[in-house]
Amino acid sequence: MKKVLLTGASGFIGQHTIPFLIKKGYEVHAVDIVKKPSHIIKSKKLLWHECDLLNHKQQKVLFAEIKPTQLLHFAWYAVPGKYWTSYENLKWVQASLELAINFHQSGGERAIFAGTCAEYDWNYGYCSEEITPLKPATLYGACKNSLHEMLKHFSNQTKRSYAWGRIFFLYGPNEHPNRLISSIVCSLLKGKPARCSHGNQIRDFLYVEDVASAFVSLLESKVESAVNIASGVPVSIKEVVSKIAEKLGRSDLIRLGAIPVNSSEPPLLVADAGRLINEVGWKPKYDLDSGLEQTIQWWKEHLKV
């Protein structure tokens, strides 16, 4: 039986991958530092492991017990506003390298790691895996990029199959309320003004369930190295905010230009999704409109207003 070790299983992306993995026939060994949340799907094929992956002894015992054939690694430090510069990034580079070594030593076959669009040189705007230079401007991006370089050489040397999914801008149910789309939805549902920048920035958004399915498709494929996990569709933040306001009938509460734009923020950041679509053979289930509908509905059901 195929056994996948899924890290960050209770996280924003991790929890959404579980149903896809089970559907593909995996025995899913979900790993997190917390107990299994009540909203996570129940299945005989899902086994939950509480483990601190930053503890090398616990991690080694985990691999000896499970001996996974596949690895899907999402766990990382991801506190909004803090993860860009936190020293925790360095700890996760170390833990991730130990994951790769333990996976190899336990006989694993294919590993997928989560990267980020922050690895690219944002001055280029349009990000292609094979063309756009890698020039991270933050500690977070530098740690991810450095980890990828080490994993690439390690995988070549050990003859282990691997891929690296560079995530762009995602949104959806269970997202942290301080993130862009969630914060707009929450403010409007509470009847409060939604303060935004001018909103002219062009971005690449993908609904979290599609992000999860893309990673599972990547795991199932034989595609190697870096793959952008994105829609490839450019859209302005202003358009996204306007769509949310229209759906909730609260355009009067939108405050464009109320927040200054950081000088390091690029005007354009969009992915070339060609490898994901053509080589992996993946396609999204949701467009922006339907993804926002799902997100708004979830917040209506979970937000106490």
Helix content: 25-40%
Q: Helix count?
A: 9
- CATH class group of the largest domain: Alpha Beta
Using the CA coordinates, give the radius of gyration. 19 Å
As for the CATH topology of the largest domain, it is Rossmann fold
Total beta strands: 15
Report the span from N to C terminus. Answer: 46 Å
Average pLDDT number: 96
Alpha-beta classification: alpha/beta
Shape: globular
Low-pLDDT residue spans: none
Strand content: 15-25%
CATH architecture name of the largest domain: 3-Layer(aba) Sandwich
Profile the largest sheet.
7 strands, parallel
Order of helices and strands: EHEEHEHEEHEEHEEEHEEHEEHH
What's the number of structural domains?
2
What's the name of the CATH homologous superfamily of the largest domain?
NAD(P)-binding Rossmann-like Domain
Helix and strand topology:
Blueprint: E1 3-7, H1 14-23, E2 27-32, E3 46-50, H2 56-66, E4 70-73, H3 88-105, E5 110-116, E6 126-127, H4 139-158, E7 161-167, E8 169-171, H5 180-189, E9 194-195, E10 202-203, E11 205-207, H6 208-220, E12 225-229, E13 235-236, H7 237-248, E14 254-255, E15 270-271, H8 274-279, H9 288-302
Parallel strand pairs: 1-2, 1-4, 2-3, 4-5, 5-7, 6-15, 7-12, 8-11, 9-14
Antiparallel strand pairs: 10-13
Short précis:
About 40% of the residues lie in helices and about 20% in strands. It has helices spanning about 15-25, 55-65, 90-105, 140-160, 180-190, 210-220, 235-250, 275-280, 290-300, and strands spanning about 5, 25-30, 45-50, 70-75, 110-115, 125, 160-165, 170, 195, 200-205, 205, 225-230, 235, 255, 270.
